[in-house]
């Protein structure tokens, strides 16, 4: 039998502490999500509604199939910055007329839906996910274009949006723009470059330059409707493919367009009979260590995530700080690499390399569950070839072509982040748990290294070492790194695709796996040189 047995003691003090810590973090996450959902706040939301306009999430809800799931991405974009939490845009994966689509929707209650640097990052990440996973794109447009005070950080990289939309079309991935309001300047090219454009009467206005710019440039007193209204673009310019009488009509037309795409997923279907895990997801909160420096057994996590808690472990007795094996998740076959005791030694690196090669041979997607402090250091390990062994693992991860989905469960430090398919290695999706920490190394270790370097520098140059000043500096650095390694900080920079309540992990992975199967699932046929 390959069904996992749980050794969890839900009555222990450790379980209670872990659970209480996770619930506090989840409450903080929910509070931050609520701020993002509020968009521009009560004043601007009320003003938007008074104009007869639907809110951004109401538009998405009406677009999606009834009672279907929506996997929102990068909800906490711009966290900890001067910009509005959520970055004035909502992105995610939902089902439209039976088709899994990427949805990108401007929130006009935040500075008129205008784009700031974090909006751009979030937008480009969503477009990348659509392209690599072959997901049709639904673009819900109401934006004043660039947030002009930040144009220096926008103008050049924002051209990538146009590149990505047209690249989707070239790849045969449809894009549909539903224009609910203003779409100005660069934003005008969104409906212009999409495969289908739907404009709402008396609301949509699409133009390269609005009336104020036309006045400044030419002296003409232009009327907004004549310059770029839905009626004009439907009857005169031909930019609009469909004329919608109101927002509900636009959403109806959008659903109709998708229903007629004749869209087919290119990956294999999930297996027919799906059994849920034998242990409740609620228990995950008591498994995750309250202190990220204390490891926990990922098998206990897998028992509450994979189908029927069934996990066929590979090389169980070798390289034991990395757990590898085969399972199914919502019917999709997967290979799993999960850190156990944090450190990656040479044995774990070679085990991972072999496992990744096997997954590519069988066209099996890989799930990486990160909880790593990095590759082992020290004289004996360097002499034993840890660099070469780690390089094998990184080589295998880099050149693997099956879908990778990564979850940062706790620690994600050093090159272990890379070897376990961190952001730089292009996983199809990457999620974090709210307790996650991610940095070059742990805060205390980094501050300590800096202290040692400073002391050695003083001794080598004959300077007096100021221990008191060094201690103050060490504490300052440790506090800085601790704050910057938090899940909220990292998610704010869009270094992941969102923070998950751990109890939602199974379903989030299921949606992500389904999305990756919109594209072909094919393993690599060749690799680079493995340093032996």
Kindly describe this structure.
The protein has 532 residues and is α/β, with parallel strands linked by helices. 41% of the residues lie in helices and 18% in strands. It contains 20 helices and 17 strands. It has helices at 13-37, 42-50, 56-63, 117-133, 155-170, 189-193, 211-218, 224-228, 230-237, 247-259, 284-287, 298-302, 346-361, 379-383, 386-399, 414-419, 443-461, 467-484, 487-492, 505-516, and strands at 70-73, 89-96, 99-106, 137-143, 175-184, 196-200, 205-207, 242-244, 312-314, 322-329, 332-339, 343-344, 366-372, 374-375, 404-413, 429-432, 437-439. Strands 1, 2, 3, 4, 5, 6, 7 and 8 form an eight-stranded mixed β-sheet that branches. Strands 9, 10, 11, 13, 15, 16 and 17 form a seven-stranded mixed β-sheet that branches. Helix 4 packs parallel to helix 5 and helix 17 (443-461) packs antiparallel against helix 18. The longest helix has 25 residues, at 13-37. It is globular. The mean pLDDT is 93.
Main features:
globular, 18% strand
Strand content: 15-25%
From the alpha carbons, calculate the radius of gyration and give it in angstroms: 25 Å
Quick one: biggest sheet?
Answer: 8 strands, mixed
Low-pLDDT runs: none
Shape: globular
Oligomer: single chain
Secondary structural class: alpha/beta
Terminal CA distance = 36 Å
Q: What's the β-strand tally?
A: 17
Report the average pLDDT across residues: 93
């Amino acid at each position: 039998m390959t069904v996992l047995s749980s050794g969890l003691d839900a009555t222990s003090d450790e379980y209670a502490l872990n659970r209480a810590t996770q619930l506090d973090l989840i409450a903080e996450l929910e509070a931050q999500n609520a701020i993002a959902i509020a968009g521009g706040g009560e004043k601007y939301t009320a003003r938007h509604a008074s104009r007869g306009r639907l809110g951004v999430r109401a538009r998405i809800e009406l677009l999606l199939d009834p009672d279907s799931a929506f996997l929102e991405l990068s909800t906490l974009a711009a966290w900890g910055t001067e910009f509005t939490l959520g970055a004035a845009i909502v992105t995610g994966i939902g089902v439209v007329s039976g088709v899994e689509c990427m949805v990108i929707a401007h929130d006009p209650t935040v500075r008129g839906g205008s784009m700031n640097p974090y909006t751009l990052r979030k937008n480009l990440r969503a477009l990348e996910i659509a392209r690599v996973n072959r997901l049709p794109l639904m673009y819900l447009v109401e934006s004043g274009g660039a947030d002009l005070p930040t144009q220096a950080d926008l103008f050049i990289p924002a051209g990538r949006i146009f590149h990505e939309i047209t690249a989707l079309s070239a790849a045969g991935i449809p894009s549909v723009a539903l224009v609910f309001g203003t779409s100005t300047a660069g934003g005008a090219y969104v409906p212009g470059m999409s495969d289908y454009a739907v404009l709402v009467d008396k609301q949509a206005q699409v133009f390269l330059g609005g009336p104020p710019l036309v006045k400044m440039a030419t002296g003409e007193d232009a009327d907004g409707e004549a310059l770029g209204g839905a009626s004009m673009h439907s009857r005169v310019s031909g930019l609009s493919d469909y004329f919608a009488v109101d927002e509900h009509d636009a959403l109806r037309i959008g659903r109709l367009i998708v229903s007629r795409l004749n869209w087919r997923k290119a990956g294999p279907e999930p297996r027919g009979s799906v059994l849920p895990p034998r242990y409740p997801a609620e228990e995950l909160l008591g498994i995750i260590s309250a202190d990220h420096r204390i490891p926990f057994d990922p098998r206990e996590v897998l028992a509450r995530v994979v189908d029927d808690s069934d996990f066929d472990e590979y090389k169980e007795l070798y390289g034991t700080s990395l757990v590898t094996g085969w399972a199914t998740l919502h019917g999709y076959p997967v290979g799993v690499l999960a850190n156990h005791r944090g450190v990656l030694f040479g044995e774990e690196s070679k085990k991972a390399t072999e496992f990744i090669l096997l997954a590519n041979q069988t066209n099996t997607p890989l799930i990486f569950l990160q909880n790593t402090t990095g590759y082992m250091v020290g004289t004996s390990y360097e002499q034993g070839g840890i660099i070469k062994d780690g390089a094998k693992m990184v080589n295998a991860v880099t050149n693997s072509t099956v879908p990778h989905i990564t979850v940062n469960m706790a620690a994600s430090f050093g090159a272990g982040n890379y070897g376990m398919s961190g952001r730089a290695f292009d996983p199809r999706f990457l999620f974090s748990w709210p307790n996650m920490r991610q940095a070059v190394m742990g805060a205390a270790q980094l501050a300590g290294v800096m202290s040692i370097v400073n002391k050695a520098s003083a001794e080598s140059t004959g300077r007096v070492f100021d221990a008191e000043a060094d201690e103050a500096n060490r504490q300052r650095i440790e506090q800085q790194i601790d704050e910057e390694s938090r899940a909220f900080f990292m998610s704010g920079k869009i270094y992941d695709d969102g923070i998950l309540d751990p109890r939602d992990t199974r379903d989030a992975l299921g949606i992500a796996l389904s999305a990756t199967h919109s594209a072909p699932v094919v393993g690599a046929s060749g690799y680079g040189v493995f340093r032996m």
